Hints:
Layout: E1 9-13, E2 27-33, E3 41-44, E4 50-51, E5 63-68, E6 76-83, E7 97-102, E8 111-113, E9 121-124, E10 127-132, E11 135-140, E12 149-152, E13 161-172, E14 180-187, E15 202-210, E16 215-223, E17 230-237, E18 245-255, E19 262-271, E20 281-286, H1 287-290, E21 297-303, E22 305-309, E23 312-315
Antiparallel strand pairs: 1-2, 2-5, 3-4, 3-6, 6-7, 8-23, 9-12, 10-11, 12-21, 13-18, 13-22, 13-23, 14-15, 14-21, 15-16, 16-17, 18-19, 19-20
Amino acid sequence: MPLLEQNVVTLHHAPDSQIQLDADLTLNITGTIAGPQRDLHYRINGSAWQPIPHDKLRASFPNFTLEIASSQLMIGENCIGFDVPVTYQSMQLEGRQRCFDYQPRAMQLPFTVDWADETLNVQDGHWEVVRDQHGATVRPVPGSEDYDRILLVSGAFAGPRRVETQLVFRQATNGKKPFGFGVLPLWGGHPDQPGHYPRRGWRFGLGWYYSRYPGIGVELSEQLVDSPARFAKQLQNFTITPNQPYNLIIEAEWQRDQQPAVVELRMKWWPEGESEPVHWISVQERAEDVLPSHDYAVALLAHRTQVEFGSVRVMPIVSAHGGE
Length: 324
């Protein structure tokens, strides 16, 4: 969607949104800048102008990701404005802003996202819906694949959850660099110091295929700025086949009957047409050591790869460790 005359700025995703945010989970707007112009600024709801940020990983020029915290948003209409170089100052103000509706709502489990009529809430990159006679899938727009393309399935909510989906790996897209893809049943956004953009940290529980293993695995991790990243993981050798549909089930829960509390992540991954595995790939770790008890979103991840995800089902878990 070209936002400005001469296509100076194109927004890929600036959607109306119902996602519930958390402390480090932001509402993101992604796009590209045409030409060599780097002196572009933006503001949300009439606040102070800020430079459009770039970095080498999440949003390398001409791509950008604008991260808007819940404290910057109003219920209802919100407007993001762009200030452009003097060359383009003849444009009308109405041509330099985009307004969207923000109506956060609490998640009620179970729910299914089938993508057919969904507004895409993108954290990074450029995603699209593909429709055919079998239904709708989502994928990174071909040619836009790069580092950690993340698409939200839900906003942030508390408690354990089970996520089911089907995915198809197509190809790696960045030569010999490591690639991967999977599901984030626990996505806590990018924690960072106030005012630093793009934000640099992370907080997640992930089930994925990663070429560096090579194989499938589950990981819990938190990276805070100026602190070493903390990881807990369990891996399994696995050979991925392009164009083969795979089923994925992943569950995440905190065992609060233990002191200190333990977070557990477990996954099953198998080819369509074969029997579901009996055993889980599972990792457990003290929550305080790797992943604190926050509200977490559910998201999809494509890392330097082309992959398609089908509908996503999110359900509660009746836990043996203290209820739902």
